[in-house]
Structure formats: C-alpha cells, structure tokens
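Q: Hi! First time doing this. I have a protein sequence and I read that you can turn it into a structure. Is that right? Here it is:
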Amino acid sequence: MLTIFSAAKRCSSKQKNMSHLLHDDIAILLRSPRLPGRLNSPQTAALLGFQPHDIPVLVAKKLLRPLGKPVPQAPKFFAAPEIEKLATDPVWLGKAAQAMCDHWKGKNESRKEFSLDPESVTTN
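A: Yes, that's right. Below is the predicted 3D structure, encoded as structure tokens:
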C-alpha cells in the first residue's frame, strides 16, 4: 500500500525525519485528491515549485509563515490551504522568485569577495 510517508522509500534507516521525502513520495503527494492539513518543508516546496532548501529563505524573507511559533532550528510546518492559495497567486510567486534571485545573488557576491586573486598570492 502506497502512503505519502512510506517508510520503505526512505534513503536510509538513519533518516527518520519526516522532511526527507523521495521523488516518489512527492509524486504521490501531488496526485493525492486531498492534502494533509499541515505540510513539511519538502512538501511545501513541491507544491510551490521551489526546492526544499529555498523554504528557509522564504520564511526568513517573511514570504512564508510557518504554523505556530517554532524555534529557529525546529522543523517548520505550513497550512495546506494557505500553500495552495499561494501556489496560484502570480504576484506572490513573482515576489518569491525575486527573493530567491536576490538571495543567491547576495551569496554569490559575498563568495567572490572572499575568493583570492591568483595573481596576488605569492609563494615562497
């Protein structure tokens, strides 16, 4: 029997965290007639068309609001009806896409600042 959280489809037995879904689990979620009430980060990312590592950035930019008041390192859950609404809002999707572009642009620029110029490095 296939379920969204099928333990047999986990990457390894060490990954007991429910947020680690495989592609088959995401496909099952997307085909399901009814979503669960709360979604974890990978499920939210799949429904919105983002990657799971993009969700913390969207939360930090206040474009996504997790359920409750989770501590910073806790897993975040999101209300399925709100996520479905955001997934069909082109204005929100544009803001989220721009936020991701800005985020990666900033990370790439800061990485360039710390890289060393090969000509300026002298060896003894």
